[in-house]
Write a structure and sequence with these properties.
The complex is a heterotrimer of chains A (434), B (316) and C (168). With 316 residues, chain B is α/β, with parallel strands linked by helices. Chain B is built from 11 helices and 11 strands. Chain C is mainly alpha-helical. Chain C contains 4 helices and no strands. The two termini of chain C are 19 Å apart. Classes of the chains: A mainly alpha (434), B alpha/beta (316), C mainly alpha (168). At the A-C interface, helix 1, helix 2, helix 3, helix 4 and helix 13 of A face helix 1, helix 2, helix 3 and helix 4 of C. The structure holds sodium ion (2 copies).
Chain lengths: 434, 316, 168
């Protein structure tokens, strides 16, 4: 049997295990181990099981995951989330789908301090979901907008995916970050439009709340000092050079801890609960990450990504057809795999092709990041959705996947817009950095 | 002698495919081996850390996850104790220089470090220089109170000895940290300017020639032993000392080209004055005795150090 | 009779152990947050910093992740896809659970074994961290302990599932 066939069979087995309700990360680890066993040997397959779990966890930049989780927990327990949603509710809650729009806006704001989509989705799963449930939002719209809003975390800088892309392709991370700003704003606006359209067609999915007086609106702002303080601490610290993007997570968590303390809402019990829940979310995310890393070794040996890439080149099509094939390929891979693994496997192969065709490398980085965002929410392996359903107890995953669909379409349209108008990406880096 | 069947070997590294070692060394290695074996031995390259990152690569090779791999001994401190003598500062002047000395003393002093592997070739990265953003760091006085990024204990110690404040961070965050002023400077060779995006932010470079970084291409020993004699012969014919020197030369060349690019972008280079260099060298002398003290219970540290220093003088 | 023994063994021995190491994970998380904050304060206001904060973070991460894996599993926190089995019968579900949890037990047993080997090897090689030269093997051993406890939890779940499948 050729490695390719073994690879495809492996993916099939993964699907069966997932359908049988096996834990996702562990199913990926099992198939990855089994596949490497067949393509390599027992000693090396066992070796991966010994090396990867430790290496994946002993990772400095991934420390943003537990720390932003903890920040989210403190923010929840000190009722920061409820307060900002109360304010959002009073200001735009009267619009159809207003709170979902506020969520997208908040996700976009949070994305500007977080490089991780998982952390963004998990945090707003904790903060925004209960608030939307209180207003009797449809579960589909509520979870869909959080899962989609969470993906903004890797498009709006800082972004772990753009850093990795920059290192893999030797592009300036600064340019990539600046290149992500306009598309990030564009995609956020498109999400807002999506919510507007959804609630226009089916008003019962996001019922408008009552309208408030100007005075009530202004008064509601006084509760928001803490979240703005936190926001300016993290953003300000990052942009004034007090700390690095990774350290921002620690500063944010500590800031949220102090704010909770100052508000008199920190009890021994809330502290323990916050730590327990943050640790549990961390374990869940790393369970998936470790599995994805082990699975990636198997995919590498199976040659599936490289075969796919060379098939595209050999077909000898025109420039736009090739890029369409590549984007489609990434979206398909994105169904089964975790975004960073796809990036590591496929970008080194397709990047030279794309640059040879005359596409801008910064533009391609943003396009790839958009497909990575899609991969986070496409079934069956949609990591953001998994994380969210871990936080949103009692909401079936199928509901979230259904809720995602309109936002997925918005992302797809966003890619098409960027294909037609690449200047949306290249304008800022070219004017600001020459 | 004809080989019975075709052999495919996995060769893993963790650099991008645009890296000078990938283009000028690894790919030519694979091509030469294929040619000399009439296509019987093929080497498939797995770039960008697909089969192991800088920390896991050495175990990846040992466990057979990859057959051949590119290893940076300084990333796994304690593993290659004898070879860590090459991390000592102020000894060398180029990657080629380091590599010559390595091969010179390998048989007698270093081979024990590599007993679990088949060594294909060895080289060094170009020497690290001191980069800074706010102002040039050309004397000990300039270092006072400066925040400098440190990548290992040797650099941390050096920064402290010079009166600065070592700050730890992954190299991926270095560029943005220099830009934002989280740190004022760092130690890195010219050759790394582009790969870590430092060329956009660095302003002044002082040519310290601080230290090189040993790199080696190792093969799984069991896999090597299992190869037919004819295949071994072909690989030994290609992976020689000369090949290692060629790889180091490619790195030195890359260093030079990056330096020219840097100057074109307005980055200024400075040299240490002789007086300042000898002052710093005196401060750094503690490194040598400490290295011997730390290692002498496990390896003949003093002998290795002496041999390295003598060979370095001879091969200057 | 045997049924009772296993139940009490799981409840009285295993669960407290899982809880204990989970608390270690909380303490490390709090310590990580505090260390980062202190490091930032020192660097920005006193121009000193905690030497080796990067590698200390990495070592703390190992404890945070591996000591909370098992508690997360007990709380059913590791994500699964319910799409298809939601439509299956009780008996089919029970058998599927036995199968997948047995598979998980095997993979975590292998993982524990391999991480243990890795820890022993690292002790022999003497690999240390880059800046503070802290030996790595004790932390790999902690990862191994976390995996062993996880294996026990998965094994206990498999047994409980077998009892369920047999009973249904
Ligand atoms: Na972001
Ligand atoms: Na997906």
């Amino acid at each position: 049997m050729s490695p390719l066939i073994i690879g495809i069979s492996g993916i099939a087995v993964l699907f069966i295990l997932l359908a049988l309700r096996m834990q996702i990360g562990f199913a990926m680890a099992t198939v990855g181990f089994g596949g490497f066993l067949i393509l390599g040997n027992f000693e090396s397959a066992l070796g991966i099981l010994g090396l990867e779990p430790f290496q994946t966890s002993a990772n400095y930049t991934l420390s943003v995951i537990p720390l932003f989780m903890l920040m989210g927990q403190f923010a929840t327990h000190s009722k920061l989330g409820s307060e900002i949603y109360d304010t959002g509710y009073k200001w735009i809650g009267f619009l159809p789908g207003g709170l979902a729009m506020a969520t997208i806006g908040a996700c976009g704001m949070f994305a500007a301090i977080s490089g991780s989509s998982l952390a963004t989705a998990a945090m707003f799963g904790m903060i925004a979901l209960p608030e939307m449930e209180k207003l009797n939002y449809s579960k589909r719209l509520a979870t869909g907008c959080i899962a989609a809003g969470g993906t903004l975390g890797i498009l709006i800088p800082p972004s772990s995916v753009l850093i990795l892309y920059g290192i893999l392709t030797e592009q300036s991370v600064g340019r990539l970050f600046i290149g992500g700003i306009l598309p990030g704003i564009l995609l956020s606006l498109m999400f807002l439009v999506t919510i507007y359209i959804i609630t226009k067609i089916k008003p019962e999915m996001g019922k408008p709340g009552p309208e408030f007086t100007i005075k009530e609106k202004i008064v509601s702002l006084k509760n928001t000092w803490s979240i703005f303080l936190l926001f300016f601490l993290v953003i300000g610290g990052l942009y004034t050079g007090w700390f690095t993007p990774t350290e921002a997570a620690g500063a944010g968590a500590f800031g949220a801890f102090i704010i909770t303390l100052l508000k008199g809402r920190l009890t021994w019990k809330t502290l323990m609960m916050s730590l327990k829940d943050a640790a549990s979310s961390t374990a869940m995310i790393f369970g998936i990450l470790i599995g994805a890393m082990i699975f990636q070794y198997f995919m590498t040996l199976s040659q599936i990504p490289s075969t796919l890439a060379s098939a595209i080149v050999e077909a000898g099509f025109g420039k736009y057809l090739v890029i369409a094939f590549i984007i489609t390929g990434f979206i398909i891979l994105g169904c089964f795999m975790e975004g960073l693994s796809i990036m590591v496997l496929a970008v080194p192969i397709v990047f030279p092709i794309v640059v040879n065709l005359g596409f801008d490398p910064i533009w391609f980085g943003i396009i790839i990041t958009l497909t990575m965002e899609m991969s986070l929410i496409t079934p069956p392996v949609g990591v953001n959705v998994f994380v969210l359903s871990g936080v949103a107890k009692g909401i079936p995953m199928s509901t979230i996947f259904k809720g995602i669909l309109p936002f997925w379409v918005a992302m797809f349209i966003c890619i098409v817009i960027l294909l037609i108008f690449p200047e949306i990406v290249t304008f800022l880096p070219n004017t600001m950095m020459g | 002698p004809a080989m019975a069947k075709n052999i495919e070997l996995k060769f893993a590294h963790f650099m991008p495919t645009t890296h000078v070692q990938h283009i000028k060394v690894f790919v030519p290695f694979a091509k030469k081996v294929a040619k000399l074996s009439n296509g019987k031995v093929t080497i498939k390259i797995y770039p960008t850390g697909q089969l192991g990152n800088p920390k896991t690569m050495v175990d990846s090779i040992r466990m057979g996850i990859t057959d051949i791999g590119f290893v940076l001994p300084s990333y796994v401190p304690g593993r290659f104790k004898r070879s860590s003598v090459f991390e000592l500062p102020f000894v060398f002047n180029s990657a080629t220089h380091v590599t010559k000395v390595f091969y010179d003393i390998y048989d007698k002093y270093l081979s024990e470090d590599y007993k679990d592997f088949k060594v294909l070739w060895v080289l060094s990265a170009p020497l690290s220089q001191v980069h800074s953003v706010s102002r040039p760091l050309v004397s000990i006085a300039d270092f006072k109170g400066r925040k400098i990024r440190s990548g290992n204990s040797m650099e941390s110690k050096a920064i402290k000895l010079l009166g600065g404040n070592p700050v730890g961070m992954p190299i991926s965050e270095l560029s943005i940290s220099l830009q934002k002023g989280v740190v004022d400077g760092c130690f890195t060779p010219y050759a790394a300017l582009k790969s870590y995006k430092l060329i956009d932010v660095s302003k002044y470079i002082t040519e310290f020639n601080f230290s090189g970084a040993l790199m080696c291409v190792l093969m799984n020993k069991k896999k090597w032993d299992s190869l037919p004699a004819s295949a071994k012969k072909v690989i030994d014919q290609v992976a020689t000392r000369e090949f290692g020197l060629m790889a180091a030369g490619a790195f030195d060349q890359e260093d030079l080209e990056n330096k020219e690019d840097a100057h074109q972008r307005g980055i200024k280079s400075y040299k240490l004055s002789d007086a300042e260099r000898s002052k710093i060298k005196e401060k750094f002398s503690v490194f040598y005795s400490e290295w011997v003290g730390k290692n002498q219970s496990k390896i003949p540290a003093q002998k290795i150090l002496d041999a390295m220093l003598e060979s370095a003088k001879k091969n200057q | 009779m045997a049924h009772f023994k296993i139940d009490s063994l799981i409840e009285n021995r295993l669960y407290p152990l899982v809880k204990l190491i989970d608390k270690l994970s909380w303490i490390m998380l709090f310590a990580l947050m505090t260390m980062t904050a202190i490091d930032l304060f020192l660097r920005n206001f006193t121009n000193t910093s905690i030497l080796g904060s990067v590698e200390l973070t990495e070592l703390m991460m190992v404890i945070i992740v591996f000591c909370s894996l098992a508690q997360c599993e007990l709380d059913n926190g590791h994500i699964r896809i319910d799409l298809i089995m939601d439509h299956a019968g009780k008996r089919t579900r029970a058998f599927a659970d036995v199968f997948t949890q047995a598979l998980c037990t095997v993979i975590f047993a292998l993982m524990s074994l391999s991480i243990f080997n890795h820890s022993i090897n690292m002790k022999e090689y003497g690999e240390v961290t880059m800046d503070l030269n802290i030996p790595l093997y004790p932390f790999i051993f902690i990862a191994c302990l976390g995996c062993v406890v996880m294996t026990l939890v998965l094994f206990s779940k498999t047994i409980i599932n077998i009892l369920k499948a047999a009973g249904s």
